[in-house]
Amino acid sequence: MTKPNPVLILPGRGNSGDRHWQTFWERRHPDYRRVHQQEWDNPEVTAWVDTLQAAIAESPAPPVLVAHSLSVSLVAHWAARYRSPVKGALLVAPSDVEHPSYPPGAVGFAPLPLQRLPFPSIVVASSDDARVSLERAERFAAAWGSRLEVPGAFGHLGSLAELGDWPYGARLLQELIDSD
Length: 180
Hints:
By secondary structure, the protein is α/β, with parallel strands linked by helices.
């Protein structure tokens, strides 16, 4: 009997709080595992990538990654450095780390790798996200070979959007989990 593919939750900068859809998903699915970074506010890309690699290496089967915000960049940087098996990735609200308005403190995330990801992926972008224009999100999705989903105007698709358990995103995640 094959083991199910684990789901790794990858919060963005600051971690995902109690009202974030990632936290709702963890409460609903105790088997989902949050990848805890040592530094949430002023992250350094190599430390984040190494932490993600360790979590993937410990997984009993190729995981499905659920990334939000800066962790979308994390997945792109990880994929540029490692080749561990990953089943798929849900990449929600990528932050444009190259934009001049991106908040200072994150080290090494720019430039953003734009190579095709070696696993299926879905980029979800809001039509009114202050951290990434829809045009840039479309460019990221195309470069990574990802399908782009635009659910509407929900800002940065985080806690402030009050998405709760976010059924729309959960359906996309289930699609990746069920894929062959």
